[in-house]
Structures are given as structure tokens and as C-alpha cells.
Amino acid sequence: QVQLVESGGGLVQAGGSLRLSCAASRLTFNTYAMGWFRQAPGKEREFVAGVNWSGSRTSYADSVKGRFTISRDSAKSTVHLQMNALKPEDTAVYYCAVKTGGTIYTLAYYYDYWGPGTQVTVSS
């Protein structure tokens, strides 16, 4: 069974930074696309960022472009999300997800495995 464990969430003031990490195990890491999604209370889960199997392509939601950066470390089977210039509207539970096939999709439906999530709270 594939396991994903997120870390790095927490409380930060607006304008601050956080770096989320997701460690994957029990999968052939380099054959999967990785994505970060988030879900705020009362809202649907939404795509934040994705990276393809090789790390050569990335995709971002318009709301985070220029502020967030996704990267993957294949040697450690880990994907990171560097979040800068955080805003109160970035407050949500952030989830790491794995998708077979290697290409990035923005719909949660296409992702096969999910981590338990990590809370990010941005205060104004």
C-alpha cells in the first residue's frame, strides 16, 4: 500500500513562508506525477500545484502562481511545496497526492493515493 506523509504545516503571519514536504513510500516514485491540493472549510478540494514524473514540467493554480514552487527529490521520494508571500486565503488543509501515468492533471479525481493532510493557517 502506497504511503504519503505530509509535514511542514503550521501557523504563519501573512507575508510569511512555509515549506511543505511529502514523503512517499511503497511506490516506484519516478513513474508518478505528484500534486498538492488544498481544502478550506466549506469549500471543495482544489488543485494547487503539480509536477510530472521527471520533474521537467510543473503546473500551478492561478491563485498561487509566482508565490508557490513545487519540486521533487527523486533520491528521497519526496515532493516539496515552497510557499512564499502567504495570504489568509491560503489557509486550508494541504494534501499531497500521487497520480499514475506521470502527467499532471488538475482534477483530484485522477489521483490515486492521498496523504492525510497538513494544516496551514495564515493569520492577517
Question: How would you describe what is shown here?
Answer:
By secondary structure, the chain is mostly beta strands. Helices cover 0% and strands 51% of the residues. The chain has no helices and eleven strands. The strands form two sheets. Strands 2, 4, 5, 6, 9, 10 and 11 form a seven-stranded mixed sheet that branches. β4 (32-39) and β5 (46-51) form a beta hairpin. The radius of gyration is 13 Å and the shape is globular. The termini are far apart.
Structural topology:
Layout: E1 3-7, E2 10-13, E3 18-25, E4 32-39, E5 46-51, E6 58-60, E7 68-73, E8 78-83, E9 92-100, E10 113-114, E11 118-123
Parallel strand pairs: 2-11
Antiparallel strand pairs: 1-3, 3-8, 4-5, 4-9, 5-6, 7-8, 9-10, 9-11
Which descriptors would you attach to this protein?
four-stranded antiparallel sheet, globular, 124 residues, single chain, seven-stranded mixed sheet, mainly beta, 0% helix
User: In what range is the share of β-strand residues?
Assistant: over 45%
Query: Shape, please?
Result: globular
**SSE ordering:** EEEEEEEEEEE
By DSSP, the count of extended strands is 11
